[in-house]
Structure formats: C-alpha cells, structure tokens
Amino acid sequence: MKTIVTLTGKNDVKLKAIERSDLEDMAVLANDPAVAANLRDTFPSPYSLKDAEEFLSLIEQGKLNHVWGIYAKDKIAGAITLTPQTDIYRHSAEIGYWLGAPFHGKGIMTEAVSLLTEYAFREMNILRIYAGVFAYNEASKKVLMKSGYHLEAVKVKAVIKNDVLHDEHLMVKMNI
After folding, report:
1. Is 7-131 in CATH node 3.40.630.30?
2. Which of 40, 34, 8 is nearest to 116 (CA)?
3. Under a CB-based contact definition with an 8 Å cutoff, are residues 131 and 116 in contact?
4. How far lies 66's CA from each of 58, 61, 109, 164, in Å?
5. What pTM value is reported for the model?
6. Which of 31, 37, 55, 154 has its CA 20 to 30 A from that of 100?
7. 106 burial class (0-12, 13-18, 19+ CB within 10 angstroms)?
8. Residues near 10 by Cβ (< 8 Å), separated by ≥ 6?
9. Tens digit of each residue's pLDDT (9 = 90 or more) over 110-164
10. CA–CA separation, 145 and 131 (whole Å)
11. Distance CA 60, CA 19 (A)
12. 128, 171 in Cβ contact below 8 A?
C-alpha cells in the first residue's frame, strides 16, 4: 500500500487514508441510492460493510492507489480518488468522488476537490485533471466550477445509467 499524504483544508476538512474503524460509518453513508445514482456501475448498490471492507482491502493490497477518505471534523464523510493516466496521457488524471448526504451543502466537497487538485498539480506532475459528470448532476458540476474547473465538452449520449442514455459533461482544470 502506498502511503497517502494527509491534506488539510479549511473548515476542518481533511483528506487522509481511510481507517478501518471508519468502515461502518462509510458503509452507512455509501448505502444511499442517491450516491450510486451519480457514480459508475462498479460502485455497489446497495453498499454494505463487506463492500467497504473489500474496498479498503484493494487499497491495502495496492490495487487501488490515490484514494483518500474525506473527513469533516474527523468524521468520515465520503471518498475522493485521483487516477493518473498513462502513455500519451501521462500528465493527466481523472478525479472522482462521493459525499454522504448529511455532509451536503457545507462546502466540504468543494474544499476536498480543491485540496486534491492543488496537491496533484504541485506534487504529482499532473497538468490536466478531468471529471466525467452525468449531465443531470448539477451539484457535482457546481463543485467543480467552484474549484476552478470548466466545461470542456459534452459527450452526447455517452453513458448509460439505470438503462437510460445520458450526456456526460467533461469538466477540466489545467495547470499550464
């Protein structure tokens, strides 16, 4: 397992390694259909304690890297990932995240995205970070825009979620 640097932001927001003692709370937060509705189908729904344990196991085995727990006032609130790309895309990374409903509307996710974005630009030799956002996910687009991202493209009918085709908005921030 790679060591995850703890990133500390404003308003008691921290990004740090997910702790085994937080898995039960994480499972409760993630077991919300509204969370899964905005994520890829690989995200389990319903989400159980076993799913949280398997997720942490993948991180500990080094099969998932660049994964942080989002903590608000030292309580697990969600998770955020950065996936560096390879080959000709080696200076790009994809950001992905989710936040439990009790933590919505408090600026926590905007702070988390900003923290991780600045860290990636400063420490990881990343020049371009992007997120694919379902067109209907206005909250996520607002988070990204508040964090300095802009709409680069609309990928028409590019994703299928719950058997419905949707547009995907490609949100990007550059460090050039």
Report:
1. yes
2. 8
3. no
4. 12, 13, 17, 31
5. 0.94
6. 154
7. middle
8. 111
9. 999 999 999 999 999 999 999 999 999 999 999 999 999 999 999 999 999 999 9
10. 11
11. 11
12. no
Give ∠ CA 68-73-40 in degrees, rounded to 5: 35
Residues in the chain: 176
* Token pair 């936040």 in the structure block, residue: 99
Tokens of 169: 């908005």
Q: Specify the DSSP element, H or E, that contains 36.
A: helix 33-36
CB-CB contact of 171 with 152 (8 Å): yes
| Token pair listed for 118 | 């600045």
Q: Domain extents for the chain?
A: 7-131
Cα separation, 72 vs 64, in Å, equals: 23
Burial of residue 85, with CB atoms counted within 10 A of its CB: 0-12 exposed, 13-18 middle, 19 or more buried: middle
